[in-house]
Amino acid sequence: MKETLKDAKEYWRWQEYHRVLPDKSWKSKDTITAGVDVGSVGSKAAIMVDGEMYAWAITRTGSNSPDSAKKVMAMVLDGTGLQQSDIKYTVGTGYGRVNVPMANKAITEIACHAKGANYIWGPKVRTILDVGGQDIKAIHCDETGRVTSFLMNDKCAAGTGRGMEVFADLLQIPIEDIGKVSLSIDEEPPPVSCTCVAFAKTEAIGLLRKGWTKEKVLAAYTRAMAIRMANLINRVGLEKEFVVTGGQSKNMGIVSRVENILGVKTLPSPNWRDGGLDPMVAGATGAALFANALYQKSQGT
Amino acid sequence: MITHYGYIDGSGEFYIIIDSDKCNSCGECVKQCPQNALEMVTEFIDLEDKTVVAVTEQHRKKIKYTCSQCKPEENKTPCILACKQSAIQCVWKPQ
Q1: pLDDT tier, B48 (very low <50, low <70, confident <90, very high otherwise)
Q2: Are B47 and A297 inside 8 Å of each other by CB?
Q3: Residue B44: which of A107, A153, A235 has the nearest Cβ?
Q4: Contact A289, A51 (CB under 8 A)
Q5: Hey, are the CB atoms on B47 and A111 less than 8 Å from each other?
Q6: Which of A148, A155, A293 lies closest to B2 in CB terms?
Q7: Which of A61, A75, B53, B93 is the most buried (most CB within 10 A)?
Q8: Domains in chain A, ordered, with CATH?
Q9: Among A139, A203, A218, A137, which residue's Cα sits nearest to residue A171?
Q10: In this predicted model, what pLDDT tens digit does every residue of A39-73 receive, in sequence order?
């Protein structure tokens, strides 16, 4: 029994990490600001020095928003030599934004994601698909990162990161391999009819019993999610300068299917494993930028 | 900023669309809504806080039922007629 428990793998578990950009540093006269994005599944924090990215961290959101905010803040400060008191202004965002104890202001994640995507990919970005842990947002913005139109589907968790975690667990595929596995099929199966997370297990088990491989089940579910996302994007207006943010930006199975359905390629993402900015931190990045702007404004500059 | 409140599901497409750049914070639509589905909220635009109309949280996920009695498919709901700025619109496509 002990052996079984020890061997039990948490397939849904994704990588929590923190990073300090090696070629950046801070001096005491610099304006240091922070953004904390407490999402439904992941908590992200970013620190900026004079409006330039310096460090960030990603961790799992616990059951308590203030604690998650404190935890991710401690993670991001680790190795920077900075103290909480060195941070001039902090903006909270995400589901738990009103529960970020160190925040000077709360701003919706919509505004922060657009601002963050504008920073990560540059002013050419117009259409943003944010696939979070519990909702999907389609955002259209201008060259300054100001939101012009947006739509959020939080009616159900279908097609979200949480849904993918459920599938990773059910099919016993590590979450970070799920995109690759969903693409390892000879022919794309028809999408599943029901993307509901609560019923997905029932439907998936039914398909497995019918003799479908787990790759095929995963492909059918991923395809159904991608169709839903494409519908949302078409409603806010698709432009070819298109990016995906949030945890599912790392799921190639989702990204490539959305690209196929829409007939548009996403702008190339920086490689977060290789020192580049992380599209999952777009919300916290935008929040830290707003923090910098609001601090400058409060100083009358 | 144009916000789409509502959803697409198996039964169709249902959105109340609010353009907060056009909204002048008068609150007339809030008074006219027979379902009390609208409220004034603070939105962060261009580093300023602005008071604009929004669909209440409680109605966002059941907008199909909340708004159907006002005949949104004709785009002549009390909220739309009340808005002198033309800041409100509906997209109503039941399947």
Answers
A1: very high
A2: yes
A3: A107
A4: yes
A5: no
A6: A148
A7: B53
A8: 2-121+275-298 (3.30.420.40), 127-266 (3.30.420.40)
A9: A218
A10: 999 999 999 999 999 999 999 998 998 999 999 99
